[in-house]
Design a protein that fits this description.
The structure holds two protein chains of two kinds. In chain A, strand 9 and strand 10 form a beta hairpin. Helices cover 53% and strands 22% of the residues of chain A. By secondary structure, chain A is an alpha+beta fold. In chain B, strand 4, helix 4 and strand 5 form a beta-alpha-beta unit. Chain B has a five-stranded parallel beta sheet with strand order 2-1-3-4-5, sandwiched between helices. Chain B has five helices and five strands, in the order E-H-E-H-E-H-E-H-E-H. The longest helix of chain B is centred in the last third of the chain and has 14 residues. The chains are: A alpha+beta, B alpha/beta.
Chain lengths: 609, 125
């Protein structure tokens, strides 16, 4: 229906076009005829006005009349009248009754004109429009007459055969052009049809193609489809734009999270390197860059083996690769002597596996295990040392007992000495085991203090008696300084004794023969102060902060030459701490050490607690 | 029952030096003692003992260093080394095995074990 309306419209426009064209042609023809008549009239009237008046009386009158007669019949000349100076017609060439139909006013105006005049009028009693041309005839400077000529502008017939023929040709050409243009447009729009179809497929993905009717009827359908597609495209664009904004937001969040993850990875005490499937580095964290003394730009996209320059690690990775590519983490221990001397790393290899179980690359992590290794070494050394310390008295006891049992010692005095040695070594063993137990209990928090009032003079003298024998053997003099009043303490007397003996015993142990030890007890305000000042080997400045650390033993050969567990001062420090006391040490190498123990007096003990 | 075999006992523990010395003297051996590895090595070079009984953990020079240095001397004159060990380190066995004429006794040992070891060494010669 719509198509029909469009067809009718096109035909109407076409007909109107033809009408306008015909009208234009008629107007144009009229204009040309008018011009032609004007030229002809002007010419003829001027030509006749050149004749002297006598020509109209003489033999020439017939010649002029004949000539004009031709124009009258063929070229629209209606009349030609020559008047004398009085207005009397001398010659009149006109169709019958014409002269009588000329209005009087026209005639008078023409007769009185001195030059040339053109007038247009409608002939009386008819609808004919006449153009009259008049010109005065002059002879010897005197007006001798007037020539008047009337021309009829013949009506133009619209449907003249010539015009109909022209219009038919024009219509044929117009129709042909229209048909050609139509097919040309259809042909040109064929790619557009495909574009349209593509648009349709692109825009309506959710609708199966078969359910969407594709009209191939014409340009209108095509444009309609295209319009729909553009609407859908716009809708799709808006949807995509919204999705794009959402995606941008998500991308921003992901980028933020990614940065967070990288910051976390950068802040951990692990070296991380990630490679692609070609073993080129795709990520390296700050820890690893610092270790390798490299910059990120110099490392990214370079082969792992080239960057690490570590044959052991490269071999390890190749070996693991040869085994399998499971996600199981395996590791080796390695070091970088040129980059980080004395540091050890546990190098682990794992694989990046995608969702499709595909291999994406490798992750190589470097854990600094120097402290673990050091702690393991210290632990091993401690166990070795303690085992030696435990087994040595046991060996003595065992072998002395064996000698006695096998009656290899006949001398009674020697037998007594052997029994004494067994007893001493048993005590030594007991002390060591007790120290270990105490340390263990303190560490576990299970040490129960057998608290009571401890008289400081008793504590002082008991400690002194214990070490006096060893001091005498080394000819070390012990100077005693005691207060007038002995303050009472509150605590575990055996543990306090053990703590102070450790200090005094060390003083004896690490003071050379003929040395001097000052053992002082002072009563000061709230505390009783025990001081042990020796003239021994002293403690090196770098060792001083560690003397109360468990298992610590100085590397000074004068210390290592002596047997010791490295537990004594650690135990003393813990005992003093358990009694709310303080212990400190000052020392100078080769000059001696000064240990100070401050223990709260009985009356202040609870207040300090 | 006096014989000319010379035994060197190296230990920083006086009680152990004493008891080993007594045991071997009772068996007729000539016994010399040293308190550390450094002193022991000097005696090995000067007195050329037939058997060296040594502890491992000692001041100045430990038993391992002593054994390694002594191993060089064994190329000129072989002798038996008995190492008294606590057998803590798994590597201890390894380095002892690598040395010539070196055996170990585990603490706490029996004196008769060491004696048997020495007698066996001389008996096999």
């Amino acid at each position: 229906m719509k198509m029909q309306r469009v067809g009718i419209g096109i035909i109407a426009v076409f007909l109107i076009g033809i009408g306008i064209f015909a009208q234009t042609m008629i107007q144009n023809e009229q204009r040309i005829r008018a011009q032609d008549i004007q030229q002809k009239g002007n010419y003829l009237v001027s030509l006749i006005a050149l004749h002297p008046m006598e020509d109209f009386h003489s033999s020439k009158r017939d010649f002029i009349a004949k000539t004009l007669a031709q124009y009258v019949t063929s070229d629209g000349l209606v009349y030609c009248i020559v008047h004398d100076q009085n207005g009397t017609p001398l010659l009149s060439m006109a169709r019958r009754d014409v002269a009588a139909k000329i209005p009087q006013a026209v005639e008078e105006k023409s007769l009185y004109v001195n030059g040339y005049i053109q007038q247009t009028y409608t002939m009386d009693g008819t609808k004919d429009v006449i153009n009259e041309f008049a010109k005065a005839i002059f002879e010897d400077g005197q007006r001798s007459g007037t020539v008047r000529m009337g021309f009829n502008l013949p009506p133009i017939t619209i449907l003249s055969p010539q015009r109909v023929k022209l219009m038919a040709i024009m219509s044929f050409f117009a129709f042909s052009i229209a048909v050609l243009v139509y097919y040309g447009i259809t042909l040109a729009l064929r790619p557009l049809q495909e574009v349209n179809q593509n648009f349709r497929n692109f825009c309506i993905e959710s609708i199966p193609e078969s359910t969407v009717p594709v009209k191939n009827g014409g340009v209108h359908d095509m444009i309609t489809d295209l319009e729909q597609s553009v609407i859908q495209l716009r809708s799709k664009y808006e949807k995509i734009h919204t999705e794009n904004i959402n995606l941008s937001t998500k991308c921003g969040v992901i980028a933020f999270e990614k940065n967070n993850v990288f910051n976390i990875i950068d802040s951990i005490n692990y070296g991380i390197i990630v490679t692609d499937i070609q073993d080129n580095i795709t990520y390296i964290n700050s820890y690893m860059l610092n270790l390798l003394e490299e910059k990120e730009d110099n490392v990214i996209d370079r082969p792992l083996g080239e960057v690490l320059g570590h044959d052991e690690i490269t071999a390890f990775i190749l070996q693991q690769e040869a085994l399998n590519k499971s996600n199981k983490i395996s590791y080796i221990e390695a070091s970088f002597p040129e980059l980080a001397a004395d540091e050890f790393f546990q190098v682990s290899l794992s694989y990046l596996i995608g969702k499709e179980e595909d291999f994406l690359g490798k992750v190589i992590s470097f854990k600094n295990i120097t402290s673990e290794k050091s702690s393991e070494k210290a632990k091993h050394e401690f166990i070795t040392h303690i085992t030696h310390e435990l087994l040595t008295p046991l060996t003595t006891i065992n072998s002395y007992n064996e000698m006695l049992m096998e009656d290899e010692i006949e001398n009674i005095e020697m037998q007594k000495e052997f029994y004494n040695t067994i007893s001493e070594e048993t005590n030594r063993l007991t002390r060591l085991v007790k120290t270990l137990l105490n340390i263990s209990k303190i560490e576990m928090g299970s040490l129960s203090l057998n608290k009571g009032i401890v008289k400081s003079d008793w504590l002082f003298n008991d400690c002194l008696t214990t070490v006096e024998g060893a001091a005498q053997k080394k000819k070390i003099t012990i100077e005693k300084n005691l207060p007038d009043n002995f303050p009472s303490l509150f605590g575990d007397k055996e543990l306090l004794k053990l703590g102070i003996i450790n200090i005094l015993g060390n003083a004896v142990k690490y003071t050379p023969e003929n040395g001097h030890i000052k053992f002082t007890l002072t009563d000061k305000d709230e505390v009783a102060v025990f001081e042990v000042i020796d003239s021994g080997y002293g403690i090196a400045k770098e060792d001083l902060p560690h003397v109360f650390d468990k298992f610590f033993r100085s590397a000074d050969p004068r210390v290592t030459d002596q047997s010791g567990s490295g537990l004594g001062l650690a135990l003393t420090s813990e005992i003093i701490r358990l009694h709310n006391g303080e212990i400190e040490v000052t020392s100078k190498l080769d000059e001696g050490s000064h240990f100070t123990i401050r223990l709260p007096k009985e009356e202040y003990y609870l207040g300090k607690q | 029952m006096e014989n000319n075999r010379r035994i060197l006992v190296i230990d920083d523990e006086a009680h152990i030096r004493r008891v080993i010395e007594l045991k071997f003297k009772n068996q007729g051996y000539r016994v010399t003692t040293a308190t550390n590895g450094e002193e022991g090595l000097d005696i090995i070079e000067t007195e050329q003992p037939d058997v060296v009984i040594t502890d491992i953990m000692m001041p100045k020079m430990d038993g391992k260093t002593l054994c390694e240095r002594a191993n060089e001397l064994k190329k000129k004159r072989p002798f038996l080394t008995i190492v008294m060990t606590c057998r803590i380190s798994p590597t201890e066995q390894e380095w002892i095995d690598e040395l010539q004429d070196t055996v170990f006794v585990e603490k706490p040992f029996s004196l008769s074990t060491i004696l048997k070891c020495v007698d066996q060494y001389f008996g096999n010669q």
